[in-house]
Write a structure and sequence with these properties.
- The protein has helices at 13-24, 67-74, 105-115, 120-139, 157-162, 167-174, 178-185, 200-211, 224-235, 278-284, 293-300, 335-342, 389-403, 410-413, 422-429, 473-492; strands at residues 4-9, 29-33, 44-47, 50-53, 59-60, 83-85, 90-93, 98-101, 215-218, 239-242, 246-248, 251-252, 255-256, 258-261, 266-274, 307-316, 326-329, 353-356, 370-379, 414-420, 460-462.
- The protein has 496 residues and is an alpha+beta fold.
- It has 3 domains: 4-83 and 222-303 and 438-493, 3-Layer(bba) Sandwich (FAD/NAD(P)-binding domain), CATH 3.50.50; 101-213, Guanine Nucleotide Dissociation Inhibitor, domain 1 (Orthogonal Bundle); 306-429.
- The strands form 5 sheets. Strands 1, 2, 10, 11, 14, 15 and 21 form a 7-stranded mixed β-sheet that branches. Strands 8-7-17-18-19-16-20 form a 7-stranded mixed β-sheet. It has a 3-stranded antiparallel β-sheet with strand order 5-9-6.
- Strand 1, helix 1 (13-24) and strand 2 form a beta-alpha-beta unit.
- The protein is globular.
- It starts with a strand and ends with a helix.
Length: 496
């Protein structure tokens, strides 16, 4: 007899989603998390009275009807978390102009069409294609065999048509104005890719999870979301072990039969779900010789996403200088130029940066009369061999200097300063190279080409941003739902 029905390794948002949905169906679920608390990237910390969210500052799919809203409704948690709608969602600053972006697609299209009236129909077509690709992708059941594209090409024609296309190729075929291309490409940066590299499928997920149900932040700490899921799991009979690392996934033949903890304890389970780094799952937890050569070759050839350098600041005074809480500043209109440097493990001098002011909409993040800022840039893990204090100080000073153009006397107002590097993110999330979104959303790693939820090891499943549909909180929640559906299907058929 197995100790539990399902063992989930890693209590990030995908693992928690999967665990809650399976526990709700009556399965005995055990989650194992090596950190001291659940949530992965979706966690928070405090310093000297200031509250900072680690990396998730805003969320899509949280308003009524959105994926996260539906999950909370299903688990009877809607009354436990309050979302603050962010409208407008963001302001983009260029050297010669700025653009305020709505969090609602119709308003966004209307604004762009008024700025570029000659290409209004093409703008509408771009977003229609992205929306239809996203909707096709969302209809795919967990039972589809992702390793066999021909099995669904007739049923999902747009996914088939665009499965190897980049978003840049889509834009080049429809849009002529260079600056309009830049505006339509801005959000590819949230996947840490330029339009010439991100897949159409990846871009569809980013744009539609953002526009379908508006953009929100959580009133209070973002970690309320995973903490509420964890509490719901416990109330349904599930267990969560924190500060416990998994050493191995024992096999019987080609079937996963549980986990062995780093302290030596073995726990048996009918199914094992990994919400951890895919490379670590297969190269560190599975004994050699149990995985097909073709699968290992595919795994070794996959490319993780980039990471971030983040500077959290607590400052004196308010932030009336900023019209919205979420800002992005560009020094170049050629988005590809930045990535040429990043792909060579360099951070360009004129790298765009994010300037977020969480306390502007979330007053609980700062003491009265003070504010919080989050400044960040894209950063390759190998930019620095050890990310020592000298490197952190140089990058911090550069960000503070650039942000001072928007917030006068910023440096003199700082009372709290905390840096997070790709190495910090790797240490906290255990994602290789601090990858912010699992595998990079390039065509050969998106949609049907991303790792499947099922694996070559029977009864071992994947969930999270290393599998489909990809990164972002809405994306990993979707992954958790689909993995739960796949496990439940096997369980009800008695295939254990």
């Amino acid at each position: 007899m197995a100790d539990v029905d399902v063992i989930i390794i890693g209590a990030g948002m995908a693992g928690l989603t999967c665990g809650c949905l399976l526990a709700q169906k009556g399965l005995k679920v055990l989650m194992i998390e090596r950190n001291q608390k659940v949530g992965g990237c979706c966690t928070s910390f405090e310093k000297e009275g200031f509250l900072f969210d680690l990396s998730v500052q805003s969320l899509g799919e949280c308003q009524k009807g959105g994926r996260i809203w539906r999950l909370l409704e299903k688990l009877n948690l809607l009354d436990e978390i309050r979302f603050i709608s962010l409208e407008p969602a963001r302001e983009y600053h260029f050297q010669d102009r700025k653009l305020i972006q709505s969090s609602f697609l119709e308003k966004h299209i209307e604004k762009l069409s008024s700025l570029f009236p000659k290409e209004g129909k093409e703008i509408e077509k771009i977003y229609r294609i992205l929306k239809e690709v996203f909707e096709e992708f969302s209809r795919i059941p967990s039972s589809v065999d992702w390793f066999d594209p021909s099995s669904f090409s007739s049923k999902y024609p747009l996914l088939s048509q665009y499965r190897e296309k980049t978003y840049g190729e889509l834009l080049d075929g429809l849009i002529s104005h260079p600056f309009l291309k830049t505006i339509l490409s801005i959000r590819s940066s949230y996947a840490l890719l330029p339009p010439q590299e991100i897949s159409v499928i990846g871009m569809a997920g980013i744009e539609m999870s953002y526009f379908n149900h508006g953009v929100s932040c959580i009133d209070g700490k973002v970690e309320q979301l995973p903490l509420q899921l964890a509490e719901a799991l416990r109330k349904m009979g599930g267990q969560i072990l924190t500060r416990k690392g998994v050493h191995q996934i024992p096999l019987r033949g080609k079937k996963a039969i549980g986990v062995k903890l780093k302290g030596g304890e073995e726990i048996t389970g009918k199914f094992v779900v990994s919400n951890m780094d895919a490379g670590s799952t297969f190269f560190n937890l599975i004994a050699e010789g149990h995985l097909p050569a073709g699968f290992l070759s595919k795994l070794r050839g996959m490319k993780p996403s980039l990471s971030y350098f983040i500077l959290y600041l607590g400052i004196e005074g308010g932030l009336d200088e900023l019209s919205v809480s979420n800002n992005e500043v560009f020094f170049e209109k050629d988005l590809q130029k930045e990535y040429r440097s990043l792909n060579e493990s360099r951070i360009p001098e004129k790298a765009p940066f994010y300037l977020l002011a969480p306390s502007k909409v979330n007053s609980s993040h700062a003491p009265i009369g003070k504010s919080t800022l989050c400044l960040s840039i894209k950063a390759p893990f190998h930019f620095s061999p050890d990310w020592d204090q000298r490197v952190k100080d140089e990058l911090s000073q550069d960000l503070i200097s650039k942000a001072s153009a928007f917030i006068p006397n910023l440096e003199k107002r700082i009372v709290v300063k905390v840096e997070t590097t790709p190495k910090t993110i790797e240490r906290w999330t255990h994602n290789r190279w601090g990858a912010a979104y699992g595998w990079a959303q390039i065509p050969r790693q998106s949609g049907i080409y991303r790792l499947s939820r099922t694996t070559p090891i029977s009864n071992l499943y994947l969930t999270g941003h290393w599998t489909s549909p990809g990164g972002g909180i809405a994306g990993v929640v979707a992954s958790g739902e689909l993995t739960a559906e796949a496990v439940w299907s096997r369980f009800t058929k008695g295939e254990q």
